[in-house]
Hints:
The structure holds two protein chains of two kinds.
Chain A: H1 8-37, H2 42-55, H3 57-82, H4 90-107, H5 114-141, H6 145-165, H7 200-217, H8 219-229, H9 231-236, H10 241-265, H11 277-282, H12 289-299, H13 304-327, H14 333-347, H15 350-360
Chain B: E1 2-8, E2 11-17, E3 26-30, H1 37-44, E4 52-57, E5 60-62, H2 67-72, E6 75-78, H3 90-95, E7 101-102, E8 105-106, H4 108-122, H5 137-150, E9 155-159, H6 167-182, E10 186-191, H7 194-200, E11 203-208, E12 211-217, H8 223-231, E13 249-258, E14 267-275, E15 278-283, H9 290-297, E16 305-310, E17 313-314, H10 320-325, E18 328-331, H11 335-339, H12 346-350, E19 361-362, E20 365-366, H13 368-381, H14 398-411, E21 416-420, H15 428-443, E22 447-452, H16 455-461, E23 464-469, E24 472-478, H17 483-490
Parallel strand pairs in B: 3-10, 3-11, 6-9, 9-10, 15-22, 15-23, 18-21, 21-22
Antiparallel strand pairs in B: 1-2, 1-4, 4-5, 7-8, 11-12, 13-14, 13-16, 16-17, 19-20, 23-24
Helix pairs in contact in B: 8-17, 13-14, 14-15
Amino acid sequence: MKGESPRGVVGATLIAAVPQIVALLLGLVAASLLILAAGYNPLVVFGTLFRSALETPSGQASVLTYTGIYTLTAIAFLVPGKASIWNVGANGQVYLGGIVAGVVAIYLPLPPILWPIAAIVLACVAGGIWGLVPGLLEAYRNASAIVTTIMMNYIAVALIDYMILGVIVIKVPTVAQYNDVVISQGAMIPTLPYFSSSIMVVVAVLVAIGTLYLLQKTTLGYRIRATGLGRQPAEAKGINPRTSKAMAMFLGGAIAGLAGAGDVLGVGHSCGTVACLQTDWAGGWFFGEGFAGMAAALVAANNPVGSIFSAAFFAVLVSGSSAVFTNFSGLNLYFFYAVQGLIVAFMAAPYLSKRIIGLVRGRRWT
Amino acid sequence: MKGIRKEFPGVMAVDGVDLSINKGEVMGLLGENGAGKSTLMSLLYGVYRLDAGTVEIDGRRVTIKGSGDAIALGLGMVHQAFTLVPNMTVMENIVLGSEPTRAGVLDRKLAARRVDELMTRTGLPVGKDILVENLPTGFKQRVEILKALYRGAKVLILDEPTSVLTPLESEELFKSIRKLTGEGSTVVFITHKLKEVMAITDRITVMRKGKVVGSIATADATFTKLANMMVGRGVERKFVFSEYKPGAVLLSVRDLVVSSRLATRAVNGCSFDVREGEIVGLAGVEGNGQTELVEAIMGMRKPVSGTITIRGRQVSGLETKDIMGLSVGHVPEDRALSGLVLDFSVAENSVLGTVDRPQFSRSGFISFRAVKDFARRIVAKFNVAAPNVDVKVRNLSGGNQQKVIVGRELSNEPHLLVAHQPTRGLDVASTEDIQSLLVGARNAGRGVLLVSADFDEVLDLSDRILVLYEGKILGELKRGVGIDQLGKLLGGVAE
């Protein structure tokens, strides 16, 4: 069959990505039906969305920032996923990283350069621990991480609310004043040239490449993948699956913590881990960064580098969404979540897209 | 059934079998693992399609295209793995699939009455409102039997029904079978256990390597007779053995007792040694404690009492990793489940358990050049048919998968190799390849503990044969021993 002749790594990757892309398109088609039902022309709506995200400076900055965040939370999901453990708790881990970075940046003055680095490292540790706890619970006590990570999300949100609203750490009396909390310049991370976005997107890309390397080329990554793909043979050959799972959850949590730190310490607080927490809360925080990251990871079939692209796609959707909300009454934030959900739903049914590809090619997919 | 034939890729599972089942009898279908018993019955039940042959029921020729046809013809089969819905009640499970309905809704009263009737008629009571997940295994099996009977089964095929039961539950099952035949049902009892077949059947048909060896009335059968039929003797394969000069003791097992879920003393006081330069065959019909014994040696199961010493070191309480560190290789019983990560490449599998060694990785970073070189050497040396070492082992044939495992274990140059069912399910060519590798290891001075239910294999390869029966070693035989003696011992008739 001509479709199966070797065409090099790039070609193979592209062929492997075809079902993903088809699923994405199917999701967009389904979203278009939603838009039609709301009484608008899908082409116009998507046109507005893409133009706003890609052609305005604020849109571009937002796309870059969200690409960074979603890439990192995608990795926070997929690394434990490789050890066959479901980290649904990237949200909580992002918040923990964010608040710890915020506390360090506000209350722990250090020399420049060292200051943001210390904040980031501590944020990673905090996020890592937030991931490690459910990791240990699943590895040693057989408590499904799907449940415990969700619970840890609630605990994280409650904890942060307590720290902010309980006037313990950040000491701002009203929601309106969150944005007045100043993070000193010395603790900030650098901004990209030309764009009003921090260098976190670059860091995220490097982390994605590093994760691919870690998974494929290190003994730790080998143990994590062996645990996920074949727990029994791994165990029979002396690989301890419990340690692998716990390690994967710590890594995932730490990377989510990095996303939180990058957001708090970056220019503009676009996502607003600390500043806009209340908005997140009001808008249903559980649809936050962590879940977009999960979607991005699923779309990329758990490939760290592929996640950069799917993260960018979701970043475009979310960045352009505010223009959609303002121009088309009736299409609100939940519209964006619906689109995201539809795409994930089609991703989760790979057989469907494969079947469609088969039909397009004029033969049955077997 | 006449001239039944079924071929799986690389294996002739059932090869020209004629079989008759008489009404009202309990027919035992006896044979070692892989003899084709289950396949033959699955063909009858419509799980697989026949390659050749005909089936007649009550003198009428029938074609069975699926289990639906088989059920309609009055056949019922209870598989080793149950097919019950755990969180539904016993009654719901029994009627599931042919439930009486009224206006499209389950008629619980009618269902209950029918199930009650069935239980009284057959004398197999089970509390019908209990959730299946709360039932002990023996009762789950009884529900499976009732389910088949509810669908009108007149011939009941039980596939290794006692393999999941405790001895007490087995006794109960035998009582049930007697009640059923008293009711006019016919039962086919598939097993590899001589004792059971003697205890419960009226007639015994013995299968070996896909063929029927013979059929005798249970009243005329003896353990020895049956064991000899099961063991048979194929073509003697010639391997080149160097002179038998056993060296230092590598493995020493003393008074070992190991328990399992099904038996408190699955291994019941075993003692033996394995030395350098010898193959010690542990022969026995499956389920006599082999699995537990190997797991105990490999640190996967904690012994109740007794000692295991490997190369002078007491290993009780050590983890698998530490035991492998004592230069022990292990070819596990179930290669697809425990030997390989199927979605890993040949290269990745070649270092499973050894990736931390300095030849493959430095401070956590794997040298894939070294790993692939190592895998290529395995592929070349052990004749693995794989296009390259990056291919997933899932895509290799069973024989080649096994060669990857044996190759990996032998390439680590272990002093002691524990090979558990190393050739089960393999085609003839792969079997011979693997067996010569074991002989080669022995000639090179390694010690091999060969645990196998394939009697030809044990006879061909072993310098010494230990016969395991009900967790005990019944006796030791030297190379070249007559098949009769092995048969006698296997039947549990210790001299």
